[in-house]
C-alpha cells in the first residue's frame, strides 16, 4: 500500500483527529505510521482506491503522497 502524509485542519482537536480521521484510516484498511509534532498530521499507509474518502474528510486539510524531501 502507498504511504501518504495527512495534514489535518488547524481547528481539528486532538480528539477529532484520533476519533474521526485515524479511525477512518483504520476502518478502510489503512495503518497509521509516523505521527508528526511540527504539523498537525501523520503518515497513513492507505489503500489507493479509498483515498478520495480521506481527502474529503471534514477534519483533513490535505493528503499528499509521502516522498523523500531534499534540500540543495
Short note summarizing the structure:
The chain is of the alpha+beta class. The chain has helices at residues 14-27, 51-55, and strands at 3-8, 31-35, 41-45, 60-65. A 4-stranded antiparallel β-sheet has the order 2-3-1-4.
Description:
It is a single chain. The chain is α+β, with helices and mostly antiparallel strands and 72 residues long. The chain has a single domain, classed as Alpha-Beta Plaits (2-Layer Sandwich), CATH 3.30.70.80. The protein is built from 2 helices and 4 strands; from the N terminus they run βαββαβ. A 4-stranded antiparallel β-sheet has the order 2-3-1-4. The chain is globular and about 40 Å long. 15% of the residues are buried.
Secondary structure layout plus pairing:
Layout: E1 3-8, H1 14-27, E2 31-35, E3 41-45, H2 51-55, E4 60-65
Fill in the keyword field for this structure.
globular; alpha+beta; 4 strands; Inhibitor I9 domain-containing protein; 72 residues; Alpha-Beta Plaits
Q: Which CATH architecture would you pick?
A: 2-Layer Sandwich
CATH class: Alpha Beta
Structural shape: globular
Quote the distance from N terminus to C terminus.
30 Å
Please tally the β strands and state the result.
Answer: 4
Q: Roughly what fraction of the amino acids lie in strands? A: 25-35%
* Name given to the CATH homologous superfamily: Peptidase S8 propeptide/proteinase inhibitor I9
Strand order of the largest sheet: 2-3-1-4
The SSE order reads EHEEHE
Roughly how many Å is the radius of gyration?
A: 12 Å
Mean pLDDT: 93
Q: Approximately how much helix is present in the residues?
A: 25-40%
Amino acid at each position: 500500500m502507498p504511504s501518504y502524509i495527512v495534514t489535518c485542519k488547524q481547528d481539528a482537536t486532538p480528539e477529532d483527529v484520533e476519533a474521526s480521521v485515524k479511525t477512518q484510516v483504520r476502518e478502510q484498511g489503512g495503518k497509521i505510521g509516523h505521527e508528526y509534532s511540527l504539523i498537525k498530521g501523520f503518515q497513513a499507509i492507505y489503500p489507493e482506491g479509498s483515498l478520495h474518502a480521506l481527502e474529503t474528510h471534514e477534519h483533513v486539510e490535505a493528503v499528499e503522497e509521502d516522498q523523500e524531501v531534499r534540500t540543495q
